[in-house]
Amino acid sequence: MTLRTSLPGLAVIGLTVLTTACGSNPKRQSPAVTPARPPAPAIVTPAPLPDPIETLIATSQSHFAAGERELKMGHLERARTEFDRAVDVLLESPYGARTDARLREHFDRLVDRVNAYEVTALAQGDGFAEKPSEPASIDEVLKIATFPKPDAEPGTAETVKADLAATEHDVPIPQNSRVLSYVELFQGRLREYIEDGLTRGTKYLPMIQNVFRAEGLPLDLAYIPIIESGFKTNALSRAKAKGPWQFMRATAVEQGLKQNWYIDERSDPEKATVAAAKYLKSLHKLFDGDWHLVLAAYNGGMGRVQRALKRSGRDDFWELSADARYLPRETREYVPLILAAIIVAKNPAQYGFDITPHDPIAYEKVELPRATDLRRVAEWTGATIDDIQALNPELRRWTTPVKYADYAVKVPVGTAALLQARIADAPASDLVALKWYTVKRKDSLASIARKLKVSRADLAEANNLSVKSRVRAGQELVIPRAPATLLAARTERTTPSAVASRAIGGSAPVPASGRAQTSATTYRVKRGDTLSSIARLFDTSVDKIKNWNRLRGNRIAPGDRLKILTSDSQ
Length: 570
Fold this sequence. Notes:
Helices cover 48% and strands 6% of the residues. The protein has a two-stranded parallel sheet with strand order 1-2. A two-stranded antiparallel ribbon has the order 3-4. It is globular. 37% of the residues are buried.
């Protein structure tokens, strides 16, 4: 019994002790706090100092790139300034142009590139290289037209029928299978030609329609250039017809259009349109108001159509052209081609054409007292050379005519006053880079041409002479080859190559007055050059460089010397 009663007692005592311990709530001890260490000072890595050599090279390169941009725009003076500066920043620096291997490499490449531009890029615009022409649309269109043409789809025939009923035309347009087949062809194989021509024509159609309206001509005839040239001002056909209205040389002269060494007014949109209006009116009178016969004569010639009418005893184009004996195929196809073009041109959206119109061409005119380089005109008006040439497509070369009193050059609207001010202050030598030759005793055109290595015909035509003309001692002749160097137009200035040559101890080449420049240059290959990059630099091809240097492969090495022919020898 004692043992049994003592066990509960022990339990009570244990519980009491436990309860007392839990209820005592002794004061808590704060944990020790380790004071925070101050942050370690940041290690600042100083920015690397710019490499002065790389900075110098970058500055020089930026000026060279600016010169290239100006040159592409035809701005010779600004290009010259930038090229000069690209060299001068090297020569004027404390490091000189040759104290560092990187500088030497950049300097050598820079001089070569500037010289390459002098020899090639500027020689292309030497004032006497004729601007390239573009293929006339009519050659390709008529070539395609000689193949079997598709029959008009029922949908096309219905569209044309509704269109002719709703749209007023001032030239009669029959809805026959020949016209309809061309409407079908325009929506297929010839779509690109027609769309390009319609888009390009939006620049000229307002002017053409104004001229035709003033002359009392049908406005539908304003669309003839869609087929003739695609409205390209410098279009030249295989038959040598030229301009938007594709005049042959003799017909153009009959209609009062001037043509000589410097200009070809067949390419002047406004003058050629006036001539076309006169010609169409004369044909209209000759063929008693039958516009279909007029169109046939415009293509094949009035004499051919008159003979065909006489031989056949017929007076209707459709009857006449149904027999292949009387008119050539080109003329038989030409009339339905033009009529189909008129149908589509008046409502292009109905035939699936999406035409984005251009603003009508606009310009101001400035009379020039002397021959002037078009690149000067571009620079002084703030335009590009492409802008100026586009406004003056009748100019065959990069200069306005020599010995042409008060030739009026077209410039962008708002720039005429700028050009007039510069022309008034500019010396004659600043206007155009021309070479002149003073005729000596016993000289003839043939001997001068041989001496100066130019074509006798070019020499004569450039001076408004015939090839059989005699020249007299003391007479001044313009030589149809302008200076090939960048700064030859102003020889009192120092050329980039002359500046460069000072640094390498040489002397700049001075072209002999009136003499042809060398036809080749030597290029020293630099590290990183490829045949492709050199070809681009000299505006030539890899194949030509390989042929000139008898290279079998494409491998070249720094230090190699390559012969490069200039543009007048290519």
